[in-house]
């Protein structure tokens, strides 16, 4: 299931960045730092909110394109699943850590993607995102570099509300 999620997520991101495929994902709106999008997949409609980091550390590294998003896939009974996508492969068997207002959440990594390690914590992370102002994600690249990203949470509540009725 997580492999399918990674594939769908990667395709959605490609659709947003590749002009030839841009019609695959439709932008629903923009809520401060968070954009909202949808597309049709074989399992039904997929809606998601997405943002990019406001800060990338260390500044001397080529981080590539970085995204944090939350997807809603009613046809697959998936509701508000957070995912972090890096512009590089993570170090094998490494964890990424999301921190909001002193509360940390562990994410397992595979390739360029990371998901909340304990699915029961996903709603807790979403609640923290809604009440916080910034979110920090720390990860380790395949080359062994420790990287840190800061994402603004301004607009996340409105963005998530806009995809609540995704069907």
TrEMBL record:
Gene3D superfamilies found in the cross-reference section: Invasion associated locus B (IalB) protein
InterPro entries in the cross-refs: IalB_sf, Invasion_prot_B
Superkingdom of origin: Bacteria
UniProt keyword list: Signal
Signal peptide annotation: 1-22
Name by which UniProt lists this protein: Uncharacterized protein
Originating organism: Mesorhizobium prunaredense
């Amino acid at each position: 299931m997580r492999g399918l999620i990674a594939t769908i997520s990667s395709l959605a991101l490609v659709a947003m960045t590749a002009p030839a495929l841009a019609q695959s994902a439709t932008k629903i709106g923009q809520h401060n730092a968070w954009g909202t999008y949808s597309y049709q997949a074989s399992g039904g409609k997929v809606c998601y909110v997405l943002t990019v980091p406001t800060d990338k550390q260390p500044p001397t590294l080529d981080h590539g394109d970085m995204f944090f998003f939350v997807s809603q896939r009613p046809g697959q009974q998936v509701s508000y699943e957070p995912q972090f996508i890096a512009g590089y492969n993570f170090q094998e068997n490494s964890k990424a850590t999301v921190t909001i207002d002193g509360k940390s959440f562990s994410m397992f990594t595979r390739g360029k993607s990371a998901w909340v390690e304990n699915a029961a914590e996903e709603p807790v992370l979403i609640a923290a995102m809604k009440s916080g102002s910034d979110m920090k994600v720390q990860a380790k690249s395949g080359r062994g570099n420790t990287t840190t990203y800061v994402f603004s949470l301004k607009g996340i509540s409105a963005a998530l509300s806009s995809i609540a009725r995704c069907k």
